[in-house]
Amino acid sequence: MYKDGNITEASASNVWIVKNQIIYTPPATDQILNGITRVFLLQALKQQNIQVHESNISKQDLLEADEVWVTSSTKEIQPIVKVDDKLIGNGQIGQFYSKAVTVFNQAKSDYYEAKKYL
User: Fold this and answer.
1) Where do the domains of the chain lie?
2) Partners of residue 79 on adjacent β-strands
3) Predicted TM-score (pTM) of this structure
4) Scanning 9, 21, 25, 116, which has the fewest C-beta atoms within 10 Å of its C-beta?
5) Residue 111 to residue 89: CA distance in whole angstroms
């Protein structure tokens, strides 16, 4: 979905792109659901000093991205390798997606481990 030329979100998930080894996701506004998985991943990436920016993403940015993924509570992090019949990057799951999944899973594990002592 997009508004005023910028990608906002997918129908039930948040959008992320990678371009030139930097991760981008649209900022949480009244146009974008600030999903729990989005917030959790954003914090986990920043804690690992992985460069991530909250900024507007145009449809052109999306189509020219090296990687695209979406996040949601039910699917967590899912790669997108094709948009509108156009391959994203080389059409394969990218290294930043794999890194994001690793960081996300470790953060979940750390959370559940710490919660045992509360």
Assistant:
1) 2-115
2) 69
3) 0.88
4) 116
5) 33
Q: How far apart are CA 70 and CA 97, in angstroms?
A: 10
| pLDDT tens, position by position, 67-110 | 999 999 999 999 999 998 999 999 999 999 999 999 999 999 98
- Return d(Cα 74, Cα 53) in angstroms, integer: 24
- CATH no. for 2-115: 3.20.10.10
Distances in whole angstroms, Cα of residue 94 to Cα of each of 35, 37, 85: 23, 20, 18
Residue (of 37, 39, 45, 5) closest to 21 by Cα position: 45
Instruction: State how far the Cα of 32 lies from the Cα of 90, in Å rounded to an integer.
Output: 28
